[in-house]
Amino acid sequence: MSKELQPRWSLKNRMTLMLFGLVICLWVLSAVVIYFKAEHESQELFDSSLSETANLLLFLSEHEIHEVGSAKISGEDAVNDSQHPQYLAFQLWDMAGNLKYRSANAPESPLAPLTVHGFSWQSTEGETRRTYNLKHNNGTLRIIVSEPLKHRQEISGHFFGALIAFSVVLLPFGFLGVRYLVSKALAPVDECAKQVNALDVRNLKPVNARELPIEILPLVDGLNSAMTRIQEGIEREKRFTADAAHELRTPLAGVRANVQLLQKELQNPTADQSDIMSDAMVGIDRCSRMINQLLALSKSDANIGRHSDPETLNLASIIQAVVQMESPHAKSKSVSIRLNESSVVAMELIHKRGKIMVYPTALELLLRNLVNNAIAYNRVGGHVELEVETLPSPNNSNRLLLNISVKDDGPGIPIDKQAFVFERFFRLHPNQSKGSGLGLSICNELANLHSTSIEITEGLNGQGVGFKFTLQEA
Prior knowledge:
Helices cover 51% and strands 16% of the residues.
């Protein structure tokens, strides 16, 4: 299965669902236990109320019979409340089995067998009822009190409904609470992920393992160890590149001096000798240029300028230094270097505001490589123009963006090749070019150092090519 099709899962979501599932299971278990416990307690409470009612009614009935004699009185309840239906029904019997008194909702037949004493479940007229049969101490009267089962079921149903309604309201808050606690617990992991995501070859700082769970510490420790080894390997590669370039400079200078001496010694060289010496000088110049670019690349990889604090941008000074250093190269190619007239105002404004911080050495190397590249690949008699412009930031109108462009009117770069020009050792015409394919790669590295990137634009007067990068105020 390809990486794109592999299922992905979230530790936060999984923990939330698992913990919330556990909460639901515990709630269901506790709700069942509570319900059956409440049901048991309520049954005991109902039975206790039924027995107390029976004792009270038997006591009152005894006095009533003594007052009215042995007359049979039945079904004549004094109170009839339609809003509160009577659930309890009772019958008063003498020991001979004669019905002496009954409530209006009690039948004339016994609610329970007269021989049954205490609590029992009875089915009367298709309805299940809880009954309590109590005999008087003197043995002359017996009372039977009953309560329909549906009354108790209604009360239990109300309790169960209230429990469900409470849960429906409470469970969403429970889910949000679990989600919050999981997010809070995994906050150090999220912070660690941000640090890891910010890692690159220019930032191999160890990941801060403070407050991380002990289960993740081995992973972070292994990552930090791997980054240390990577950093050491990069440093060895940089040292090798720098050392090799420095070591090659001296023999190349000697070879160049010998070829020049040979050209002077040979008064009338043959055509083949002239071609050989010319080719040798071209090769030496190409090697020298590659060595210089390797040194520059080594410096850019080593984050040149970051060993010191960034400084306020003084673009005029940097451009002046770049033009001065590249003037001999431009003169040898009959190429002119100029600064766009409107750029002076933009540079003065940026310098006055003083809100753009840069690494001066790195920025100077970036501009020098762009200008050098524009000169090297330009036509004879061509032009190279530096342009500086300011515009408001789209995210904050109080901040300014500074666009710096280097344009030429040379042969340009085909559109289908523009995507590759920043790759190391890429050359547009490998068989014709004298370059090494490192110049623009170095520029890209130095632009990344300033948290920006280089964009390919149009050249001068619809010809050539331009390179632009943007700096922004802090």
